[in-house]
């Protein structure tokens, strides 16, 4: 690597899956992470129940978590459970109640006190011996536990996330996972929040951009079934959903790569997009039954430059310059990193 390359690539970034056109959840590289499936969030009488019950009940979080966990076990996926727990030392010695707004809320409401009923797993979501119980997280990022070591040991590349709460631990952990190169999917009907606005903003605005896909538990299990049956290739007639779960259209044709054009899907124009769309095949991240998911939200898909076949020449332009050909990264100055 040249000095110039080192300057622009000092932080190693990896996309862990590393397989173009890998449309399913590889059974040997996918893990299901359930965050905070505990009584304080999910049970009547829990310390946070009055805040969370509106979404937990309307979305059906507990039943859908049960279904997701059962399906993951059937297909042999690791199930990781990431609860919270606080002791006197956390507050008296480390003053966590002064760190963030949510830490203050949890402190004042006596949430997740270690050894209490509230910090224990919901009775319908009890761990099995094959599950992995993570060390308790003290903030909103479950990667600040022993989670990274387990994922590396398991060879995980695809991380499926559900649990509590949408705009805090679920989002923070998924965002961190994506930054570290994991393929992140959120199971939207197995996630709750402390309010309906927080839930809606998370699943419709944030998750579709910080993750790779949002889907229901049924779709997740259908994708696992397709992977197990090697039925993951995109077909004409498949319904196309954006990463926000918005319907974009139906696949008219799947065009193979050639010397001049990258592989792509043709989706005829409709109410959302006023022209035929030529979606690069590598924008497809999952296939569940006859539904394919692309990693662009429906909300902005009309702004994508997909009005014609993706020419190989244009794709090279999208890659940007080689690091060795860049004089100064910001045009006039270089980063001021500390070596």
Automatic annotation (TrEMBL):
Segments of this protein annotated with the region Disordered: 311-339
Coiled-coil region(s): none
Basic and acidic residues: bias regions: 312-328
Source lineage: Bacteria, Thermotogati, Deinococcota, Deinococci, Deinococcales
Keyword Acyltransferase: no
Matching SUPFAM superfamilies: Isochorismatase-like hydrolases (SSF52499)
The Isochorismatase-like domain, residue ranges: 30-210
Residues of the signal peptide: none
Name of the protein in question: Isochorismatase-like domain-containing protein
RNA-binding listed as a keyword: no
Domain of life: Bacteria
């Amino acid at each position: 690597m040249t000095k110039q390359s080192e300057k622009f690539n000092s932080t190693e970034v990896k996309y862990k899956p590393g397989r173009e056109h890998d449309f399913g959840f590889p059974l040997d590289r996918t893990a299901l992470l359930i965050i905070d499936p505990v009584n304080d969030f999910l049970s009547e009488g829990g310390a946070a129940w009055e805040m969370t019950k509106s979404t937990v009940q309307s979305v059906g979080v507990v039943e859908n978590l049960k279904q997701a966990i059962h399906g993951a076990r059937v297909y042999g996926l690791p199930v990781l459970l990431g609860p919270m727990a606080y002791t006197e030392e956390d507050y008296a010695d480390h003053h966590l109640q002064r760190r963030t707004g949510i830490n203050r809320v949890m402190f004042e409401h006596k949430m997740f006190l270690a050894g209490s009923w509230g910090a224990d797993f919901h009775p319908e979501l009890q761990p099995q011996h094959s599950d992995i119980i993570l060390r308790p997280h003290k903030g909103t990022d479950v990667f600040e536990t022993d989670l990274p070591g387990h994922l590396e040991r398991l060879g995980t590349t695809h991380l499926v996330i559900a649990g509590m709460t949408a705009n805090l631990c679920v989002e923070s952990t998924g965002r961190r996972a994506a930054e570290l190169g994991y393929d992140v999917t959120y199971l939207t009907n197995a996630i709750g929040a402390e309010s309906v606005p927080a839930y809606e903003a998370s699943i419709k605005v944030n998750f579709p951009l910080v993750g790779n896909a949002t889907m229901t538990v049924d779709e997740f299990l259908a994708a696992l079934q397709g992977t197990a049956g090697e039925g993951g290739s995109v077909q004409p007639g498949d319904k196309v959903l954006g990463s926000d779960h918005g319907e974009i259209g139906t696949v008219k044709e799947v065009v193979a790569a050639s010397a001049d054009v990258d592989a792509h899907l043709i989706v005829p124009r409709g109410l959302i997009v006023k022209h035929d769309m030529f979606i690069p095949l590598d924008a497809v991240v999952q296939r569940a039954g006859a539904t394919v998911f692309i990693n662009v939200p429906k909300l902005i898909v009309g702004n994508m430059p997909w009005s014609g076949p993706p020419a190989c020449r244009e794709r090279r332009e999208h890659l940007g310059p080689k690091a060795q050909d860049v004089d100064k990264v910001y045009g006039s100055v270089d980063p001021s990193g500390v070596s």
